[in-house]
C-alpha cells in the first residue's frame, strides 16, 4: 500500500499518523509545499503577542522526527502540480531545485487547507499588509513589528482578527479593528457578541463596525487605509483576517467536484468521487449536524478527526464523519466567547423553527471568591425541546458549559434532559443547580407553558401595547430602567396588584430574568393571563441596546447591588 | 393545598420555591429545627479558612426574605416531634418556648438531611471534638480556633475532611489527617486518589492511612488522640468527618420504610409509601444510574432536583428522578479530583464487567502557558463500550472533563461516540484532539482489537512471564525505570527487533502510554503478537507504586524531559 498525503498540517498529519498505526508496512509519503509540518498553527497569534515566548514551541515536529517515530517520508518544499487520476500519479515540484518528478499512489489524501482571502483592493499588495495562516506569515508580521511599529489595523472581527488584535495590544501597539458586519464574531448572534466587543474596547482596541477597508496607499513608510465610512487610518501594518478560501484548484483541475460553498465534496468516509482520493480539513465541505446545510468549517478538531477517518477507510474500515457542529471558542483578553450548533441567525436562514432562552448564572457559587457572571443563550426546537445550539460569554467556565452543551446536543438531548444532568458541584466550580440545569429549567418551563417571554428585540413595539413593569428594587430602578417602565418590586407585588391594569398585557422584567419569572408566576395565577417576562432581563436587554449595564466587565461594577445579586444567586442555587 | 416541608436547606428550600411557583395560592410552611434556612452549606469549610471572608455571604436567606419573595411561612427553631399519618398532622415543638402544637398538612415533604457520625469512642464527647454540617458547627470550630489553636487532627479523608484540612492549613495550623482506609477520597479508585494524597502532603497535611482514632483524652487543655497504629497525637481540636447518617428517626417512627442503606425509601416521584408524604435529599436512598444499586448520595445537586420533583408531583405533574450518577468534585489546594458514574471498585462489587483506559493529556495545548497534566481514567462495558464511569485528577480543567463525561454517560454514549465529540478548542482551553476524544480513541482501539494493555497492578507477576521493554529515551530510562526493564527507545525500535525475544510476551511502556501504543502497533504488525502496552504508562504506574514521578505536583518537575513531553503532546495533538 502506498499512500501519498498532500499537506502536512492538522488533517494531513493526522491521516499519516493514523495510517502508520494501522499499517506498519505501508509506504506513506507526505508532500508539503511549505517548510513546516504539523506545527501549532492555532498558537501563531500568541507568539506574536509574546504570550508563547519561544517560537520553537510551535515547531516541534520535523521530517526527521516523523521519520524516526512514525517512519513517514515527509518532503517539505514539495508542491504537487497535477494529479493524473487515470494513471494514479502526481506531478511534484521540488521548490528548492525547481525540478519536477512523478510520484505514484495507491491512495491519495488531499489536505491542502485554505488560503486567507486578500480582497482585490487598491494597494492590497503592499508588503506591510499581512495575513496570518502559517509560520512564514507569523515571521513576516514579527519582522514588521521588530522594525518598529506603533499602530496596527486589523481587518476582520472573527477568531483570527480578534486574537491578533489582543496580541498586538500585548505588544504595546495601538489597534483599530475594522469589521464589515454590524458585529464581531459572526458565529455568535449579535447580542452575544456585544459584550465581547465592549470588552475589546475596554482593553483599548478601537472597533469600527459596518466598516470596510476601501484602499491602501504607502505614506512616508507607513500605510494609509481609506475606510468605507470616510475615516482614514495610518498604520504601520495591516492584518487582513477576513476569512479563508479552500485550496481546491489542484482538485478541480483533475475533475473532482466542488460544492456550493466552494469546498471539495466528499462522502462521510471523506472519499471524493474518485475511490482512491480522499480529502480532509479546511478544504472540504461538511454538513451541519443541526441544519443539514453544507458548510466550510475551518476548525482544527474536525480536520484532525477527518484525517483519522480517511486513514481508516483506506484500510477498509468503514468509519464515518458525523457531520460538523461548529463548536468553537475564542479568548478575548479576560473574556471568552463560545458556541456550538446553530446560531439563531443560521436557524432563521434554514427556516428551522426554534425557541430560545437567555440566562446569566454565576460562573460558580457567588459566595466563593472570583465568581463572575456568565451569559448563556440556548436554542431548541419548539416541539420536543431538542437542542439546536448554544452560545456562552463570560470570564470563567465558558468552555465547560459549551462542551457540556456540545455533548448534549450531539447526543440529541432536549431541554428536559438538561434539567436532569448531574454535573460536578463544589463552590469553586459551579452551583448545585448548574447553569446548564438552569437552561433546562427555563426551556422546559417555556415548553410546558409555565413561563412566557417577551424579548428585548420586541422593544418598544410590543411593550408599547401594554404595561411595562420593573420588578427590581427601587434603588435599581432609580439607577436605570427601561423608559416607560413603572416600578413594582417583586417583594411588594402581591400587595399591589390593584395598581396593575387588567385590560392590557403586562411586560415584566428584572436584572437577569429570575425575579421576573417569580413575578410572572404570581401574576398569571392571580388572573393576569397576558403576562410576559423579559428573557434574560436587563442584562440581555443591555446587549441589544447600550445601557448602563453594557460594560463588557465582570459583574457589572457600574451597578453593584451586591446584596440583590447575591439574593438572586442564592435563591437560584438553593431553590 | 397546604404543604408542610420539614427541613429548610437544599432539598426543602427547593421544594418550597418550586411549590410556590406552581401554586401562588398554596399554603406553604417550612419547619426548620435549626436557626438557619437555605444557607450555603458547601461554603462552610471555606469560611473557616477565611477564603470566604464574610460569614454573612453564607446566610443571605432569612424567613423574612422568603416571606417577601416567595410568600413562605418559614419557622426556624421548630422541630417536628411526630407525624400522624392517619390524621395528617404533625406535632411541632417551638424550641425557644418549649411549647408544642399540631400542624395539619395535605402533603408533607421530609428533607431532614443527615447527621455527621460520631463513632462511640472513649472521650468522643469532648467539646473540642467537632463535626461540620451546619452554621453552628462552623461557629463552634471558629470559636475553638479563635481561642488559639496550633494543631488540628481531621478524622476522615472524604470531601469534608479534605476541605477542612486545607482550610486549617490556610489558617496556619499544623494538620494531621487520619483515614481508616488505604486511600483518601473513597469515591475515587485508589490509584486516582494517590496524587491528591501526595499533593495534600506536599502542602503540609500529614496523612495517616489505614489508621483509626481509638480514643480521646483531655491533657492540659488540649486533646490527646490515641491512634490504631500506636501513634499519639496531641491537638487543640479534632474534626470528625467520617461520614453522615440519614435522619430517618421521625419517618421510621410513623412507619415509613427504611432501605438497605439506611435511608428512607421513595419511588422515582420522591413519594414514600404514604401518597401524601414525600422525601428528598441526603435522607433518601436512590438508585445508581450505572449499577442499579441503592445508594446514599449526600450531594447538593440531586437534593435540589429531588425537591423540584417532589413539588411537581404534589401538583400532579408526573416528573421523575432519573437516578444518581454520583458526580462529585473536590478541590485539594491547587489540585482537583472529580468523578462520575461507577468506580472500578463499585463495578467489581456489583459484578459488572468493564474495561478501563488511563490517559494523561495536557489540560490545554502544551505550547500555551500554564498547561498542566491531567490524569484521566474511563471505565466502559467490554461489549459495546458504553460508558460506566470516569475519574479525573489535575490542576486545571478537571471539572470540564468530568462534566462532559457525566453528560455523555447520562446520554448512554459509548467510547465510540467519544471519538466523535466536537468540543471547543483554542490553545488556552484544550487540544484539537480533546482529552475526552483521546479517551474515546483509547477505548475504541482497545475494543476493536487495535491495542492491548497490561496494567500496573499486574506488576510484577505478569511482567515476570515475559520481556519488559521501556521505549522512552535513554535519558528517561537512566533517571528511573521499572526494575527489570530493558531500554529500546521507540525511535530505534524498528531497527532493533532482532534483539527482541520472539518466544515470550512483550510488556512495553513509556511515560504516558502514547509512545508505548506506537511501539505496540509496530511490534504486533511485525509478528510479536503477544505484546501489551502499560495502560497510562509510567504516570499511572507511579500512582500504584511510589516512584520518582509520584510527586503530586503539576508537570512532574522532578523529571522534566521537556522536549520529550512536548513531542508527545504535539504528536497527540496534531496527529
Q: Which strands sit side by side, in order, in the main sheet of chain A?
A: 3-2-1-7-18
Show unreliable segments of chain A: 557-563, 569-575
The proportion of residues forming helix of chain A, as a percent range, comes to: 25-40%
The CATH superfamily of the largest domain in chain A bears the name FAD/NAD(P)-binding domain
Separation of termini of chain A? 63 Å
Q: What's the number of structural domains of chain A?
A: 4
What is the name of the CATH class of the largest domain in chain A? Answer: Alpha Beta
Oligomer: homodimer
CATH topology of the largest domain in chain A: FAD/NAD(P)-binding domain
Number of helices of chain A: 17
CATH architecture of the largest domain in chain A: 3-Layer(bba) Sandwich
Assess the beta-strand content of chain A as a share of residues. Answer: 15-25%
> Largest contact between protein chains?
A-B, 105 and 104 residues
The count of DSSP E runs of length 2 or more, i.e. the number of strands of chain A, is 30
The gyration radius over C-alpha positions of chain A equals 27 Å
Q: Which structural class is indicated by helix and strand composition of chain A?
A: alpha/beta
Overall 3D geometry of chain A?
globular
